[in-house]
Automatic annotation (TrEMBL):
PANTHER family: ABC TRANSPORTER ABCH.1, IMPORT ATP-BINDING PROTEIN. Residues 41-57 have a biased composition (Basic and acidic residues). Residues 1-26 have a biased composition (Polar residues). PROSITE patterns: ABC_TRANSPORTER_1, ABC_TRANSPORTER_2. GO terms for cellular component: membrane protein complex; plasma membrane. SMART domains: AAA. Keywords: ATP-binding, Nucleotide-binding, Transport. The keyword Transport applies. Residues 1-69 are annotated as: Disordered. Residues 74-295 form the ABC transporter domain. This is ABC transporter, ATP-binding protein. Pfam families: ABC_tran (PF00005). It comes from Methanosarcina lacustris Z-7289.
């Protein structure tokens, strides 16, 4: 899958650039950074309201039946997860069944401690279920070698962590490039792509800064660029807007909707209903279970 970089990302949430937003793709070209991230511009007059153009959003009146659904890319089947603390088994997730289809944008909501990050870690192969199985693109990880799992995770899944997880001693550029040290697509100039991605998220002038020299929003953008470095088909984002002001959060969300319109499958955890409404579907995790399990 190619990262399609568009010229009119989310710079004017107040404006109605819906038509332009859907038609002016220039694949491979990077937009002027102010067109993607305008977070330094703060309005003192009115509280910021995030309004993104997207024809398939619920607000635009498109029903679920109009959403295009592809084959399943993520299947969580009868999954249970518990941790052992001393002699005690502490159940965290139980009876989790979830199918996410290609090109879907799914939001996961639920109270703190309900198991959202645990579920996302399982989907991203960062942890293993106690029972049940996870399939990615039809492949059951239990049947794959460690090398195959690492390759699948490295190339097909972009992961944005709740706490960014940038390496403090590496620059923004090195952090973005880091996943390519383990896995990379053939024929890709990773340094060039890392620079392009940083430019895309408006951080061209911060490439050589270390995470400690970046604001929270800037660090989050580095994490987005890093998640996209191997051009993954699936983007998993754990509270990508949780630490950001509303304007920057809206810009990040605008980027997600654009990536989703390019065909990426996105699973995003959020506490914010105003953010979740931009997803195709919302699942609610409560007490370690999915409360509204319907596709
Ligand atoms: N490694 C671990 N060992 C033991 N318990 C854990 C471990 N990781 C998570 N937990 C517990 O699992 C539960 C679910 O945690 P999780 O991080 O999935 O919640 P969450 O829904 O993402 O919460 P938040 O919204 O605050 O991020 C919590 O009670 C947490 O203490
Ligand atoms: Mg969490």
């Amino acid at each position: 899958m190619k990262t399609k970089i568009l010229n009119n990302e989310v710079s004017s949430p107040e404006g109605s650039n819906q038509e332009a937003g859907r038609s002016s793709g220039t694949e491979g070209k990077m937009p002027p950074e102010e067109s993607l991230f305008a977070s330094d511009k703060t309005s003192k007059e009115e509280p910021f309201k995030c309004e993104l153009p997207r024809s398939s959003r619920p607000d635009s009146g498109a029903g679920e039946e109009t959403l295009q659904k592809g084959p399943p890319v993520i299947e969580v089947i009868d999954v249970k997860k518990s941790y052992t603390l001393g002699d005690m088994e502490v159940p965290i997730l139980s009876d989790i069944n979830l199918t996410v289809r290609e090109g879907e944008f799914l939001a996961i909501m639920g109270p703190s401690g309900s198991g959202k990050s645990t579920l996302m870690n399982l989907i991203g192969f960062l942890d293993r279920p106690t029972e049940g199985k996870i399939m990615i693109k039809g492949l059951d990880i239990n049947t794959l070698s460690d090398k195959e799992v690492a390759k699948l995770r490295g190339l097909e899944i972009g992961f944005m962590f709740q706490t960014f997880n940038l390496i403090p001693r590496l620059t923004a550029l090195e952090n973005v490039e880091l996943p390519t040290y383990a896995n990379t697509r053939e024929g890709v100039d990773t340094r060039k792509r890392a620079k392009e991605l940083l430019r895309m998220v408006g951080l061209e002038d911060r490439m050589h800064h270390k995470p400690g020299e970046l604001s929270g929003g800037q660090a989050q953008r580095v994490a987005i660029a890093r998640a996209l470095i191997n051009d993954p088909a699936i983007l998993l984002a754990d509270e990508p807007t949780g630490n950001l002001d509303s304007r920057t959060g809206c810009e990040i969300l605008g980027m997600f909707t654009r990536l989703n319109e390019d065909g990426r499958t996105i699973v995003m955890i959020t506490h914010d209903p105003d953010i979740a409404k931009y997803a195709d579907r919302i699942v609610l995790v409560k007490d370690g279970m999915i409360q509204n399990n319907s596709e």
